[in-house]
Write a structure and sequence with these properties.
The complex is a heterodimer of chains A (about 180) and B (about 450). By secondary structure, chain A is an all-alpha fold. Chain A is about 50% helix and about 0% strand. Chain A has seven helices and no strands. In chain B, a hairpin with a 4-residue loop joins strand 25 and strand 26. Classes of the chains: A mainly alpha (about 180), B mainly beta (about 450). Chain B: Pfam families: WD40.
């Protein structure tokens, strides 16, 4: 599906931009990071709404510098929204959804270390700690396309059946770029 | 002096400043342009942290049609690169904004800011020096006290004009995020500085404290949905200011209402056209600049594709909308990939608020005549840089057959962008900054 391809491409481009902006002089720009994350969210929602029509996946890829709480909220999306739709409607639905729930953003930047509240540590990040974000180069060995990643199932909402399919296909997206 | 823009105003090349090289040194990239309140001085800031001030010379009697030329008056290093050791972050020296203070005495004052620190600079002229010291020789060496047999009063003698810039105040450590705006209040005593999430109010005399007047930082940063993109004081109501957001809204605040102006007095927002929805709708609705009209009745906002004029008395929609380069709407994906979609264009009013101007790509800039409902696209290029050469209007071909002299959208050079423009407050002289060159154009004087 055209929309799906475009969504995947935009997602990959966004992630590489987000990653590149880490090395920018002057540090991460909050405004730019926010805009990137908004585009990524739309693209990701489109992508997943079309994936969900194939397999019941509710997991969302973890975005850089994000906590798993975003993924949790993603999984709470009502199923009807996962119908594949033309771009305009899909993007609109995605934005409506994102408007209706409390938004998070990649605005949590390295600039803001002093504002990290204690509660943030108690979120379910621990469960994800062993599963590094899919798209960022991690300090561990890279996944080869075809490999599957197994998330630590510590009360995380991501232990749904199709998760490995999602991570698998998105891992393929990145090497394409 | 400022004629109405009646009829077809023609613009002529006047001057261009900057290197001719195609190879642009990053430090030379112009990051801000601002006329002072009389238009006699024109300041530019660049990525290397330097400020260059041009002064309009006294009119050339031999060539009255040339009007007056702008020549370098003062150059100084305003900001240096710094390092924040706590966060392991480099602080860029790039000058984000320059704002002139209204002149109070012989010296000129301006505020210049980078991402974190605002500085008040005094620019003063020195054309005399003291001569006839009792204790010192001409060359500065101290005399042998025993050789001094009489006293005299030193006299001031003329010398070559020297323009000195000295930092009078440094306003530091008040912004966690990147400063995007400064604006001097009409009370001439205070000014505001805005970063992504907060706006601070300063007294020009006091550097060790500022008042926080807007704070949109959510308790949980993960709930962040919008940032402040620009802010400005009202030109004559010292209690009123506006700030624009990345969501395309503008909030007008009254400082008399409360100490913290988080609750706006007015919220200006236009509902989005649902047929224009795309992946990039949020990015292109982000407002990159907001400017009050000189008469204080209107304000203008610039988003990626358009310029909007708002009546301060009407919040639900702008009174005028001008498309800057609507042909880019179908190219947003490519513009996202090459980062151009993040470009922050500024906009400006002419002296009597009848015409507005903003930049575009391919070194094009656009003027919208509000009175006569006319718009024109002009180009800043060295090819049209013969003295008083009249600029030919340019046209972008959006589809179908390309006419002669038109340029097709795919041929536009997106590396050549005009982000910063300024209009002389009292005359039809404009300053247009390309990447590293400053063009000065004037309207064709008739008769």
């Amino acid at each position: 599906m055209d929309v799906n391809v475009e969504a995947k491409r935009i997602l990959a481009v966004s992630i590489s931009k987000l990653y590149a902006s880490r090395t920018q002089r002057g540090g991460l720009r909050l405004h730019r990071s926010l805009l990137l994350s908004l585009v990524m969210r739309s693209a990701r929602d489109i992508y997943h709404s079309s994936r969900e029509s194939e397999a019941p996946i509710a997991a969302a890829p973890e975005e850089p510098m994000d906590t798993s709480s975003r993924a949790e909220e993603q999984t709470q999306l009502p199923e009807p929204e996962s119908e594949p739709q033309p771009v305009a409607n899909g993007a609109e639905a995605a934005s409506e959804v994102s408007d209706s729930r409390e938004e998070e953003s990649d605005g949590e930047t390295t600039e803001d270390k002093e504002n990290v509240s204690p509660t943030r540590q108690s979120r379910k990040r621990r469960g994800k700690a062993s599963a590094a974000p899919d798209f960022l180069p991690s300090k561990r060995a890279r996944l080869e396309p075809g490999e599957e990643r197994y998330a630590a199932p510590l009360g995380s909402c991501r232990t749904m059946a199709g998760e490995s399919l999602t991570t698998l296909s998105l891992n393929r997206v990145i090497p394409a770029f | 002096m400022l004629a109405g823009s009646g009829g077809d105003m023609q613009w002529c090349f006047s001057q261009v400043k900057g290197a001719i090289d195609d190879d642009v040194a990053e430090a030379d990239i112009i990051s801000t342009v601002e006329f002072n309140h009389t238009g006699e001085l024109l300041a530019t800031g660049d990525k290397g942290g330097r400020v260059v001030i041009f002064q309009q010379e006294i009119e050339n009697k031999n060539y009255p049609q040339l009007r007056s030329e702008y020549n370098v008056y003062s150059t100084f290093q305003s900001h240096e690169p710094e390092f924040d050791y706590l966060k392991s972050l480099e602080i860029e020296e790039k000058i984000n904004k320059i704002r002139w203070l209204p002149q109070k005495n012989a010296a000129q004052f301006l505020l210049s800011t980078n991402d974190k620190t605002i500085k008040l600079w005094k620019i003063s002229e020195r054309d005399r020096r003291a001569d006839g010291y009792n204790l010192k020789e001409e060359d500065g060496r101290y005399k042998d006290p025993n050789s001094i047999t009489s006293l005299r009063v030193p006299v001031l003698i003329p010398m070559d004009l020297m323009v000195e810039a000295s930092p009078r105040r440094v306003f530091a450590n008040a912004h966690t995020y990147h400063i995007n705006s400064v604006s001097v209040n009409s009370d001439h005593e205070t000014y505001l500085s805005a970063d992504d999430l907060r706006i601070n109010l300063w007294n020009l005399e006091i550097t060790d404290r500022s008042f926080n007047i807007v704070d949109i930082k959510p308790a949980n940063m993960e709930e962040l949905t919008e940032v402040i993109t620009a802010s400005e004081f009202h030109p004559n109501q010292c209690n009123t200011f506006v700030f624009s957001s990345s969501k395309g809204t503008i909030r007008l605040c009254d400082m008399r209402a409360s100490a913290l102006c988080d609750k706006h007095s007015k919220l200006f927002e236009e509902p989005e056209n649902p047929s224009n929805r795309s992946f990039f709708s949020e990015i292109i609705s982000s407002i990159s600049d907001v400017k009050f009209s000189h008469n204080g009745q209107y304000m203008m906002t610039r988003d990626y594709l358009s310029v909007k004029i708002w009546d301060l008395k009407m919040e639900n929609r702008p009174v005028e909308t001008y498309q800057v380069h609507e042909y880019l709407r179908s190219k947003l994906c490519s513009l996202y990939e090459n980062d151009c979609i993040f470009d922050k264009f500024e906009c400006c009013w002419n002296g009597n608020d009848s015409v507005v101007m903003t930049g575009s790509y391919n070194n094009f800039f656009r003027m919208f005549d509000r009175e006569h409902r006319r718009d024109v696209t002009l180009e800043a290029s060295r090819e049209n840089s013969k003295p008083l050469q009249v600029l030919k209007p340019r046209k972008v071909c959006t589809g179908g057959k390309r006419k002669k002299d038109e340029i097709s959208v795919d041929s536009l050079d997106f590396n050549k962008k005009i982000l910063h423009t300024a209009w002389h407050p009292l005359d039809n002289i404009i300053a247009v900054a390309t990447t590293n060159n400053l063009y000065i154009f004037q309207d064709k004087l008739t008769g």
